[in-house]
Amino acid sequence: LIFKKKLLIVQKNELIQEEKRVIRVSAEGGHIIGEIPNKVIVQTGRPRSELQITDGAGREIIRTASDSSGMVTIVFTPEPNASYFAGLVNDTTKVRFPVTEHEGCQLTVTPNENKNKPVKIVITSPRGSILQQQELTVLVASGSKVYHSAVFVQGAKNSTALEIPQQKLPHGIVHIFLL
């Protein structure tokens, strides 16, 4: 015999509203690329809650806790063609990560506090990616002006590092494009 009954919870003579468990997963750049580190933001909707990242077989990949705003930032290296899920520990609600893709690049930008030293940009792609043999261009722009451009081919390397002089960059928002 299976039955269901909704229970009302009262605390200090006030009815506690039912919590909506919404988990949102966002990959930096909008894509998850296999075999390279990816930054993923998970919004749990619950401050300081314990979060579990599992693969398609249910194996735990990462266990962490959200901050005071219910957010978690993780960096992990997914396997190609694998599925990943985020869920609160001891909760059945699970959210699927975006599909792991084989082709793509990750950009890591490391500014330098010393304005006389360059900003470092590292472009990483998975082993055997078709992008490693293509000519790629990095553009650094603000407004309608291009402040720096570089053309390169990764070749057999998984990553390429570029340095951009900070003195030539404007103050404010700068956009980095990989074409």
How would you describe the overall organization of this protein?
- With 179 residues, the protein is mainly β.
- It contains no helices and 17 strands.
- The strands form 6 sheets. It has a 4-stranded antiparallel beta sheet, with no helix packed on it. A 3-stranded antiparallel beta sheet has the order 3-5-8, with no helix packed on it.
- Strand 14 and strand 15 form a beta hairpin.
Descriptors for this entry?
179 residues; four-stranded antiparallel β-sheet; three-stranded antiparallel β-sheet; mainly beta; elongated
Low-confidence segments? none
Helix content: under 10%
Order of helices and strands: EEEEEEEEEEEEEEEEE
- Distance between the ends: 61 Å
Radius of gyration: 22 Å
Q: What characteristic shape results from the CA principal axes?
A: elongated
Which class best fits the helix and strand makeup? mainly beta
Mean pLDDT, rounded to whole units? 88
- Distinct helical segment count: 0
- Beta content comes to over 45%
Taking strands numbered 1, 2, ... along the chain, how are they ordered across the largest sheet?
7-6-9-10
- Number of strand segments: 17
Largest sheet: 4 strands, antiparallel
